[in-house]
Amino acid sequence: MRYQVLSTIISLATASAVIRSASSSRECSSGAIDPPRVYGASIISIKATQATLKSTSTTFCNVTIDYTHPGQNDHIVVWLGLPDKWNSRFQGVGGGGFATGEPSRMEPAISKGYATVGTDGGHVISATPTSWGLASPGNVNLYNLQNFASVALNDMTVMGKQITESYYGKAITKSYWYGCSTGGRQGLMMAQRYPDAYDGILAEAPAINWAQFVPAEFWPQLAMKLVGYIPTQCELAAITEAAIETCDELDGLKDGIVSLWGKCDFNAASAVGKPYNCTGGVSGMVSDKAATLVQKIWEGPRDAGGKFQWYGLSPGTPLGRLSNTSLTPSGTLSAGPPFGTAAAWISVFVKANETFDPYSLTQGTWDEAWQNSGNRYDSIIGTKDADLSLFKQNGGKMITWHGVADPLIFINGTVNYYERVGAMDANVTDFYRFFSAPGVGHCSGGNGAAPSRALDQLVDWVEGGDAPATLQANSTVQGKRWDRDLCLFPAMSIYKGGDPSSAKSYTCE
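Now predict its structure.
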């Protein structure tokens, strides 16, 4: 079998299920699990064994389902964890990068009593798309891409719900989705394309606008070529520090965090001449070319005529993940290696050539690749449809939060999406709420306060009608806990005085 940690594989798709009567014996064995019925899918095998999570000693029925879509030559695995102490809720859990899901990401939900489902989407977790993205040289495997983008997500949900209700002999009370990055994109895909699948969706740092933001992650590498300059990481950090120094106190508190990033109009040229001195004997002063490069990275991709293509990183965000440089054996600086997801997307899907070198792109061929990415793949994986009316009609509730210092997914892309949803529905906060997290990196990390109870607050909203005005968040600064709640966008957190580690010292304006 391709992968198993938590699993019994199941076949999913989109169809009604036959639910076992309420007299379910809850027998955890392969023969006792009723095969789910999903139109367009064929179950290969189901396995079920009793298991225990080492981290929490939670006992559960570990189900793994293998299935295929006849005629598509795919093989997909679904993992379903059915805890002995079930809380009557169901949770779908997403993946990250090109991983549709990972069993380890399911463990927190299982330990809290959720019947929890995930899927490999048809390819192993560690696999780059070079192993599954092409049907043959020059031909993208669209079936596999569709599975990764949406189809396998709905399949796992339908299958997971059928087996859960059959196993426990009673209906699920509420269903939730949780995921960050790719998992966040998946949550929004469910809201857009399968609006009755989940009652509540927590979509963190979502990788939406996929066909735009993923190639944009390669822009910093191309910008080095266009500017004709490769900086040290120390020089890049010096410019980032200058931006933080300038914009840090816009919120009234000097804490090393750019909280009001929308009001930070710092230009990298202001850092020219700033000295830097790092370990390893790397020292110097910020150059004109380094400033020009960083400004291009902050502004984001532009075409040959200077027209906007996508957003860049916000000032104060670490640049190293996307602007990576390295020393060659001869001691000279070299661009790269690039961020793998971006490079693989361009090579495998945009160019349909796994050996294509993204560093061969010029401004002209970049513009062509950029346009092709959107034209070919927005309808498959873009996840940018702002019409959430059916999700709202079904009573769905969704929360998104995004770290302002996210070095991989550009926060302004999420802002753009939320504003487009709001343009279609003036009462967007009735069902969808977005919060920015100053100083927080990709899904976690950084110097800022990250949400600590976002899923619990979503449950309170769905089941108790308690819509969150703020998200409870905290961080640890020099061994001390800081509480600083996140504000409902577009409001921002402003320090009003008092103990800066207390949430009561801030207000949302």
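The chain is about 30% helix and 20% strand.
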